[in-house]
Amino acid sequence: MIYEKLKNNNYAVSFLDPLEMISGLNNNYNNYNNYNIILSRVERDYLKEGIYALKYLETIPNIKIINNSDSIETCQNKYLTYLKLKEVMPKSFLTYANDFKNVENILKANNFNFPVVVKPIYGGYGNGVLKVNNLGELNNIFELLKNNGNELFVQELLDFKHDIRAFVINNKIICAMERIPSNNDWRANYSRGAKIKEFKLNKDTEKLILNSVKKIGANIVGVDVLIDKNNKPYILEMNITPQFRGIMNFADVPGEILKYLADILNKK
């Protein structure tokens, strides 16, 4: 949708394949120094290759990188995001599936109450996100995964009133929507059938979102926010390659991205 919007407005635009770039066949300035802007949408399946490619592009003068390699590396990893934003996120910790013996002590020492949420470090669309009701269920999960040594991100489950996705472009919130889980799923992902409606953020929540985005260093990002029963907002996740089919019901995301890119080019 972004590509078509740019093409339809007479911008010269093309896709760069990170796998081709890091192979070395095209690794010279002559292939890339005519680009003005690189708009990165590095998906998890090619995260390592995408970061390598961006780090190379970041060495080329006069190219503006939208969502640089550092912001992508942070946002695609839930634990790295937490390290930067833990003051405004639900309590969380990183552990490994073969290290359950320490988990009970960690939970008690940090006043975690069940249920808790267990997530993979990398992932989206609610995939692999589990609500765990007691220590026995948590032990079962660790037993299933322990031979793989998987990283696991354990997070307190907030009793929330609103689950919000805010879409931020160039330090401006262009739209926010509330996501209401379907009857058969506690997760509020639009891709899982959650209902959506436009949501008006208050000033405190707007400030929280924009300050968090600034810490992450992202130019275009989808911010997931939980507002608890006492109306206190928490950052839940930062989505550096945010899907926006749901929020397109309330805002023209490709059009807003086009305005942002056009402004950069006009300043050049």
Task: Give a quick rundown of the structure.
33% of the residues lie in helices and 24% in strands. The chain has 268 residues and is of the alpha+beta class.
Outline the structure in words:
By secondary structure, the protein is α+β, with helices and mostly antiparallel strands. It is 33% helix and 24% strand. It has ten helices and eleven strands. Strands 9-8-7-10-11 form a five-stranded antiparallel sheet. Helix 1 crosses helix 10 and helix 4 packs antiparallel against helix 5. The radius of gyration is 20 Å and the shape is globular. The model has no long low-confidence stretch (mean pLDDT 89).
Task: Break the fold down into its secondary structure elements and pairings.
Blueprint: H1 2-8, H2 18-22, H3 29-32, E1 37-39, H4 47-57, E2 64-66, H5 69-75, H6 78-85, E3 92-96, H7 103-109, E4 116-120, E5 130-132, H8 135-145, E6 151-156, E7 160-169, E8 172-180, E9 195-198, H9 203-216, E10 220-228, E11 233-239, H10 253-267
Parallel strand pairs: 1-2
Antiparallel strand pairs: 3-6, 4-5, 4-6, 7-8, 7-10, 8-9, 10-11
Helix pairs in contact: 1-10, 4-5
